[in-house]
Amino acid sequence: MLSRQVNSLAQIEIDQIKKHEFRDIIIDLDNAVVSEDGLYLSPKAEEWVSKAKLAGLKFFILSNGK
Description:
Blueprint: H1 14-19, E1 24-28, H2 45-54, E2 58-62
Parallel strand pairs: 1-2
């Protein structure tokens, strides 16, 4: 089991996810992919999403926000 808390999406190591054979990831939209006010992407979020796709990961973005 992989258990670790990070402060931003960009801190999640894609190699570690693959190493532990996770294939599907659920990501909260608010404060992970976009800022709390929804006006901009979180730092390096777009780059992380692109790398995750290239690594073959499937992820689902959920939100209870607007």
